[in-house]
Amino acid sequence: MTTNDLSVVVPLFNEEESLPELHEWITRVVAKAGYSYEILFVNDGSTDGSLDVLSRLAAVDPNVKVVSFQKNYGKSAALQVGFERCNGRVVITMDADLQDSPDEIPGLFAMIEGQGYDLVSGWKKNRYDPISKTVPSKLFNRVTQAVSGIKLHDFNCGLKAYRSKVVKSIVVYGEMHRYIPLIAKWNGFSKIGEKVVEHRARKYGVTKFGLERFVFGFLDLMSIVFVSKYKKRPMHFFGSIGTLLFLIGLSITGYLSVEKFVAGFQNVRVREVTEQPLFFLALTATVIGFQMFLAGFLGEMISQGNIRKNDYQIEKTFNL
User: Shortest CA distance to 294 belongs to which of 258, 242, 228, 247?
Assistant: First the structure.
């Protein structure tokens, strides 16, 4: 397969008005920069005329490639398919709504090729979005910063640049496109940078995302943190919690038993152990602790039975 300097991956859903202008703009910028390139449009089950527009663009421009889904699978699926099929040394993703400026491409390309970054994320410092989007977005980014340790201001910016090795090593699914920098970091790509990029007001159509994406975003963050940390060692998570709860239950039971014994020895009347609320707390903690430990044990067996060789990113081998 011929390798290009640049692959531009554009996921889209119902953006027929913006596609000709976006194509012309990208083509003009990369031609001026002198890159060999491809533009890979991933049509995520659009119900308007987007596919017809893309077909016409592909017919007149051999650098345009199109993948079209039968139905809407989401942005993560579109990006994953784009990553699998692109062949550029540098991969740049951008949204199709013209809010991301193709003029940023040379600067992003230079940070990957010239400065050695694995991934560069755009930062829409000045945004043309309503406060109902900007305020939750700031909260979302701060929480993600704290959890990931990655100092980015805009994790969800669609305009990003990657070294080819990064996109070929990671897997994006569900709604995990928001956390690609985090996924890349946990796959061993730690040189992650940021570039202030232009954010433009929407010219055509309406936004495809609502406030629910922030709720789902936090759930996805918890999911990806758990899976990334404990996928290969579930006993460390479930077993630790289970052991702690079991010990709490055992300690309370021991305390109640000693109290009953001492009271009987001193001829002092106390309530029966089974009549005390602490007994039921101890019983609950013991049962849940045992179940958590058992869940960790079963998870460990499943994990060991499903180890795949491509779970480990091998950079180099010698004399094999």
Answer: 242
Task: Report the C-alpha dihedral over residues 281, 285, 291, 296, rounded to 10 degrees.
Answer: 160
Per-domain residue ranges of the chain: 4-230, 234-311
How many Cα atoms within 13 Å fall on the side-chain side of residue 77?
A: 13
Amino acid letter for position 291? Q
Q: pTM higher than 0.90 for the full model?
A: no
How much is the pLDDT for 199? Answer: 85
pLDDT in tens, 52-87: 999 999 999 999 999 999 999 989 999 999 999 999
**Fold designation for 4-230:** Spore Coat Polysaccharide Biosynthesis Protein SpsA; Chain A (3.90.550)
Q: For residue 190, which amino acid is it?
A: S
Task: Give the contacts of 168 (CB within 8 A, at least 6 positions apart).
Answer: 83
